[in-house]
Design brief:
The protein is mainly α. The protein is built from five helices and no strands. The protein is rod-shaped. The chain starts with a helix and ends with a helix.
């Protein structure tokens, strides 16, 4: 597999949400040198977590919105507190997720 084919293959797998560690192991088993894999993976366009990060943020934001909606429906929380809580979660969750996904590299 030449460099261009490797780049396309890695980009396609990462965008489809394939776990980076599994992808690296798969490529190593195919006999591709670790240096060649790293040189492709370390490029910003092929970052390990770019596509999965967006999915994680969307999922977390949806879950937090449903949580706060449930709190509003089933408790006596006033609307202002609910909105402030949701905005805090909207700001904090992406930062937490980015921290967790950056450790995978």
């Amino acid at each position: 597999m030449n460099q261009e084919e490797l780049e396309r293959y890695i980009r396609k797998k990462i965008r489809s949400g394939y776990p980076a560690g599994e992808l690296e192991n798969e490529l190593l088993q195919k006999g591709i040198p670790p240096e060649q894999i790293r040189s492709v993976m370390d490029r910003p366009a092929n970052s390990w977590s770019s596509s999965s990060f967006r999915k994680e943020v969307i999922i977390m934001e949806t879950v937090s919105a449903l949580l706060f909606l449930g709190l509003k429906v089933f408790s006596d929380i006033d609307t202002e507190t609910l909105i402030i809580g949701f905005l805090c979660m909207a700001l904090i969750l992406p930062m937490i997720s980015r921290g967790l996904t950056s450790r995978k590299q």
